[in-house]
Amino acid sequence: MYLCAMNFSSKLLENAVDEFGRLPGIGNKTALRLVLHLLNQSEHDVARFTQTINLLKEKIQYCKECYNISDNDTCEICLSNKRDKSIICVVEDTRDVMAIENTNHYQGVYHVLGGLISPMDGIGPSDLKIEGLLERIRQGDVLEIILALSATMEGDTTIFYLYRKLKDLDVKISTIARGIAFGGELEYVDEITLGRSIQTRVPYERNIG
After folding, report:
1. Residues 175 and 107 placed together within one structural domain of the fold
2. Most confident of the ranges 7-11, 97-101, 102-106, 174-178
3. Among candidates 118, 139, 137, which has minimal Cα distance to 128?
4. What is the dihedral of CA 178, 184, 188, 192, to 10 degrees?
5. How far apart are CA 160 and CA 208, in angstroms?
6. Which residues pair with 147 in a beta bridge?
7. Is the residue at 6 inside a domain?
8. What is the domain extent for residue 144?
9. How much of the chain, in percent, has pLDDT values that exceed 70?
10. Would you call 30 exposed, middle or buried from its count of C-beta atoms within 10 A (0-12, 13-18, 19+)?
């Protein structure tokens, strides 16, 4: 693999570095640095680290309403009486929920798609939580859908697909203002720009044709 250029004195070390290197954004040298750091920690600290990861995988749930990552079957945002349940902000994943929450400019609820339509990656509409969104709208309490997806080809494709599914329903459809450069992902946008984009959202129809 890509680690073949590195000379390891231990197969156990090599295997550990290989596993860390599978994480997104982690290169060979960073993976080695992380593994060596763990080796220098006490057994108690390493056990706590591994237990935390194991518990994350075993106990984590997805909210039955919005599909956000949660400790319980319904997340705190959906349970909150302070949130406006008539407005749903549609996002790609939990990272986008966190980014928007950090702006303190949005008080509605969310719907996490779990990805974007990407034929090249084999991801189609059926792979996303679209039917769950439609069901929430059919319940009749939703007044507005904000399509807050990344300004990428995949994001635009997903927005257009969702618009076609939603346009005949009795709900306002808007998108965040494009103060975000094309190709930009929401999690990397600064809080001020993202907050203003939510506040100055526009009807999606203006962006068509």
Report:
1. yes
2. 97-101
3. 118
4. -10
5. 9
6. 90, 175
7. no
8. 62-207
9. 83
10. middle
Whichever domain contains 28, its CATH number is 1.10.8.420
Residues 114-165 pLDDT 10s: 999 999 999 999 999 999 999 999 998 999 999 999 888 899 899 999 999 9
Quote the CA–CA distance of 93 and 68 in Å, as a whole number: 7
pLDDT in tens, 66-94: 999 999 999 999 999 999 999 999 999 99
DSSP state of 41: S
Burial of 67 (0-12, 13-18, 19+ CB in 10 A): buried
* Predicted TM-score (pTM) of this structure: 0.79
3-state secondary structure of 83: coil
Domain boundary among 26, 44, 59: 59
- Show the CA angle centred on residue 81, arms to residues 75 and 134, nearest 5°: 60
Structure tokens at 48: 């706590």
Residue 114 falls in which region: left (phi positive, over 0), alpha (psi -120 to 50) or beta: left
Q: Are both 121 and 46 inside the same structural domain?
A: no
